[in-house]
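This part of the workshop introduces the protein records we will be handling. A record pairs a protein's sequence with a compact description of its fold. Backbone structure tokens are a discrete shorthand for how the chain folds in space. The question running through the whole workshop is how a given chain folds. The record below serves as our worked example for the rest of this section.
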Amino acid sequence: MNETDGSRPEGSTLLQHASEALETLLQDLAKKRIFPSGSVVFREGDPGDALYLIESGQIDICVISPDGRNLTLNTLGTGDVLGEIALLDNGARTATAAVRSEATLNVIARSQLRSAIMRNPEVALEIMKLAGKRLRWVSGLLEDRHFHPLSVRLARRILALTGQSGDAARKTLKISQSELADHVGATRVAVANVIGEWRDAEIISSSRGNLTILDHLSMKKIADGAEV
């Protein structure tokens, strides 16, 4: 559809906790749209007029910091939902959704979802629960950025972006150091220094635009705040 820790963020995979009835309803109401890489689904401040389910592709959720820097809050993928918060409160979008790789999105207009809610109030309760999970995730993200050192934040984001929540095999993440810096609210130089230390310790390997976790256990320890 077209709108915090070591594992894939619970706040992003909202439908994994939805009922079969809600999933069926959303699919029935949806209209499919394809967004090319580099396009924007919606911008911060736009009206919240639709809910989006990602069928394929990746979407970066970004905001602009007070000092003008781009901050990537999350990268969403297949099965994820976006746009639910503004949809509920009639407010403006709180972030920008930028297409990282060509995405097929299922779009549900606010008016259609509102009509469905009027017919079945249980739908509203379920969507409120899903939005609550998103808010809990955002709260955890803010806590990370205020109370955890860069190494912990960076390890958590890398694990989340590669989807490695358990003892996973090696997996390469295609992302630049500048993009990683946007994810953790740091400078590219600071991120490069941490990446360099991990490379020397053989926790990761990296080349231009690519990063592979070599020592998953050590990366998990760093994400948990433990010494390696």
Q: What stands out?
A: Helices lie at 20-29, 84-89, 110-119, 121-147, 150-162, 177-184, 188-200, 216-223.
